[in-house]
Amino acid sequence: MAVTTPQIGLIGLGTMGSALALNIADKGFPIAVWNRTAQVTREFHAGAGELARRITPTETLADLVAAIRPPRAIILMVPAGQAVDDQLAALAPLLDADDLVIDAGNANFHDTNRRNAAALPFHFLGMGVSGGEEGARHGPAIMAGGAVEDWTRMAPVLQAIAARAEDGTPCADHMGPAGAGHFVKAVHNGIEYADMQMIAETYGVMRDGLGMDAQAIGTTFARWNEGILRSYLVEISGKVALAADPVSGGPLLDVILDAAGQKGTGRWTVIEAQNLAAPIPVIEAAVMARNVSARLAERAAGEALFGPAPARVEGLSPDDLEQALIAGKILCYAQGFAMMTAAGAEFGWALDLPAIARVWRAGCIIRSAMLNDMAGALAEDPGRNLMLAPFFADHLRQSVPALRRVVAAGALNGLASPALSSGLAWFDMMRTARGTANMIQGQRDFFGLHGFKRLDGVARPHGPWAGG
Ligand code: 6PG
To answer: For 395-419, how does the pLDDT look when each residue is reduced to its tens digit (9 = 90+)?
Structure first.
């Protein structure tokens, strides 16, 4: 029997749901759980050890609702999409108006907006949860969206189960109304794709350009993880590179197929950035690179036809790659935060960028030392692009020359670095006051009489081709 009647329930005991339920129980909150397959619920409860006394397993949805003390809070951990709508429909006749349902899956924020607008017969929060299974079990980062009072009601539980930054702040916060939490989680995932891709690009240059083996590469990542790049993704990249293959005894990395999977959250970010006219080229390149990676047969045909890359790169060192990664990371995050500024304006959400950077400092996949400095720089002036903040401008002045060397060496030697080079191209556009769009405007006016503005202020909006 549970120690006290739970006020919280959880539906969906997959990997993430099970881990989150154990985390909640571990922090002292009794919880009732239900899974579509009763056997899964029984096995979960049987395997919960001493936490089982705080967990009430239930056999039907009605049992689950009956096991929770009103006003209830029920966390959904079911696959994003139709399964969430089905579950909300099934809960509707069973719940009271004061009850609260929290969708903690990786929902598309447009779906969360729609569900918020659908006048559900209970309260509803859309909540992004990051950190994988380990995070869900011991402290994820939590990005909630919905009514402030619903957040306030759940905050004691959510902040208790969340990761804590080094200064002790819980990495759980309210991002804004409706789909704001799932939107911020989507941008997180876009940045996650970009961070991973840029690390993979530096790996590629070390492997193919510098001829380093997996051991040397792993040691290099481990060294980077002690400096400004200290982050979960650099840390695990080192561990992946250093892992031995239990089958062959050689480096595991060397036997992993080079075709990346994806569930689609990075793609959603890119689609939304296009809708917002927000430039996020590093994230776009990362999504593109995953798509290209999956085209194994075409890539093999391309190599057979054009020959492999010329290989060895001269005059480049792992230190250059470290600096290139620093620059790429700053540029990528500058783009991601600027996209959130654009979204805030478009959707009428007061997204608090420093608070978002603070939530990302621990628990989530993109957690890193640099996010602390980003939170500080954004707090100085949330409307200013991060690349223009003095702290990051100083870092860019130091690291961009190495980024140029890495991108140039890649271009000359056939080592693709789409994310790093997209970051550099964006940087160069952003530091060029007189760009080249005057030619675009001339072309548009030539073929469509779309008009242009003149630098001298003279009121002649068309070229001579218009007879003007
Ligand atoms: C996280 C992750 C997590 C998961 C995504 C991305 O923040 O914990 O982003 O949500 O890894 O599903 O996975 P894909 O790489 O398959 O898109």
So the answer is: 999 999 999 999 999 999 999 999 9
Sheet holding 31-34, edge to edge: 55-57, 31-34, 8-11, 73-76, 100-103, 123-130, 141-145, 172-176
What confidence score (pLDDT) does residue 1 get? 45
**pTM, rounded to two decimals:** 0.96
* Given 192, 201, 235, 272, the catalytic residue: 192
Q: Could you please report the per-residue DSSP string of 288-343?
A: HHHHHHT-HHHHHHHHHHH-------SS--HHHHHHHHHHHHHHHHHHHHHHHHHH
Question: Which one from 43, 185, 235, 303 is the annotated catalytic residue?
Answer: 185
The domain in which residue 368 lies consists of 186-430
Nearest to 280 by CA among 269, 292, 293: 269
Does 456 fall in a domain? yes
Instruction: Indicate the number of domains in the chain.
Output: 3
Q: How confident is the model at residue 217 (pLDDT cuts 50, 70, 90)?
A: very high
Q: φ, ψ for residue 145 (rounded to 5)? A: -135, 140
Binning pLDDT at 50, 70 and 90, where does residue 7 land?
very high
Q: Does the active-site annotation cover 192?
A: yes
Q: Is there an atom of ligand 1 within 6 Å of 265 CB?
A: yes
Claim to verify: residue 56 and residue 144 sit in the same structural domain? yes
The CATH number of the domain where 147 resides is what?
A: 3.40.50.720
